[in-house]
Amino acid sequence: MRHKMNQITFAFLSVLLFSSCLASPPNFVLLFADDLGFGDLGCYGHPTSLTPNLDRLAAEGLRFTDFYSTCAACSPSRASLLTGRYHTRSGIYPGVFYPDSIGGLPLNETTIAEMLKPLGYATAAVGKWHLGYGANGTYLPTRQGFDQYLGIPYSHDQGPCHNLTCFPPDVKCFGFCNKDTVAVPLMHNKSITQQPVHFLDLERAYSDFATAFIAASAQKKQPFFLYYPNHHTHYPQYAGPETAYQSLRGPYGDALMEFDSTVGNILSTLEKTGQINNTLVFFTSDNGPELWRMSRGGNAGPLKCGKATTYEGGVREPGIAFWPGTITPGVTHELASTLDILPTFAGLAGAKLPQVQLDGVDMTDILVKHGMSKREFMMFYPMNPSEKFGMFALRFWNYKVHFFTCGSIKSSTTPDRDCDAPLKAHYPPLIFDLDSDPSENYPLSLVGRPDLQSLLAKILKVKAQFEASMVFGESQIRRGADPALVPCCNPQCSPKPSCCQC
């Protein structure tokens, strides 16, 4: 009886605390890693990763075991995160944006920042954008609802490798880079402030920007949304002097440790400004690890394959929600996605949802009550989706169904040949029970299993209904490229690209 009364009392107090939080609009900090795998954090089982601040978020917050990105590539997954819509709807396919890409995230798409702005939120983005640059910075964050931006507008490997010296003394970076384009620029709002970027100082600049934004917003008593898509742990890895050579995991571990240190600075600033109990901090990653980089590419833990595939290692990510006094520490096995972040923030802030076809659902019940997810299904498209093939895979409850499989060079070098195998159609589709087989090693047989046959019939019906509702947006990436659009701090200089330095 005492245990039951304690449960009732705790539930009542939780409701009171949650209601009191809503009296003042909550702040949101969205931390987004790059190419980080399911098994890369200490709190997700990696034995040598030094991530004390992310581990603190997990220990004092809610850790998801079944959290998904929509696509195993940078630009598409970022579009889905910010809009709550599959990237196919907004045309962010196939592949990713480059410095000379003509297109970008369409301006008629509503981002989380644009959704929160009418409620008086201050908004800032710091880090990797990778949703287009365009003519005169058409697609930069400041055109997508963000008051301020500090960062690199695309992936930091999309520049010459000589610009990526990672560890003192002058040690060249691991990996391949785009040698024939300009040095990677650092932008503040719409202006290039440094080209090439000095990577050893970059994380400190990001940390200072993020913490100053939080402090200024708190001083003005203005609710805020900080979007922090870090470059870590995408290759080539880099780390400043405070973390270089400090981890047991080599350059990858040092880069991850540097990101974690900024998370610590953000938490410290939230505490100092008195905002810690009124701020939802959410952490996840854009896609799984780039396994062909081996120890420099990240770790998917027990999951199959990695980046650029629709296997679990490519799309299942760490997910951590932290909100002291509102979120009770624990672990949830409920199904959730980056798609769900926009509607969750909307519900918590009292914001009006965009009047478009949303694919996300509100996660508040999971976060506040450790309740059940409103999400039953999760659909997965490849990096190069088409209406001809449709979705490649679908998750329903604890089952994962593959209609097509295709490996990628980005997930090669593993002993599993499926990770770089060519496109293959499956009929009947492959079915895996992810609860007992998260590595997707043992497809279930339909023979003598009327329960699975009935399940598959339901899944096929859901697939048909969803694909009938999926209207592919005009591809923004197929709009092509224009060398004149490449960011250059000295646009009239010659010869390019070597003269673009400031």
Task: Walk me through the structure.
This protein is α/β, with parallel strands linked by helices and 502 residues long. The chain has 2 domains: 25-376, Alkaline Phosphatase, subunit A (3-Layer(aba) Sandwich); 380-469, 2-Layer Sandwich (Arylsulfatase, C-terminal domain), CATH 3.30.1120. It is 26% helix and 18% strand. The chain is built from 11 helices and 17 strands. Strands 1, 2, 3, 4, 7, 8, 9, 10, 11, 12 and 13 form an 11-stranded mixed beta sheet that branches. Helix 6 (199-219) runs parallel beside helix 7 (250-272). The relative contact order is 0.18. Residues 1-22 and 165-171 have low confidence and may be disordered.
In short:
With 502 residues, the chain is α/β, with parallel strands linked by helices. It is built from eleven helices and 17 strands. Strands 1, 2, 3, 4, 7, 8, 9, 10, 11, 12 and 13 form an eleven-stranded mixed sheet that branches. A four-stranded antiparallel sheet has the order 14-15-16-17, with no helix packed on it.
| Percent of residues in β-strands | 15-25%
Instruction: Give the averaged pLDDT, no decimals.
Output: 92
Query: What's the CATH topology name of the largest domain?
Result: Alkaline Phosphatase, subunit A
Estimate the global geometry from the Cα principal axes.
globular
Distance between the termini: 71 Å
Number of helices: 11
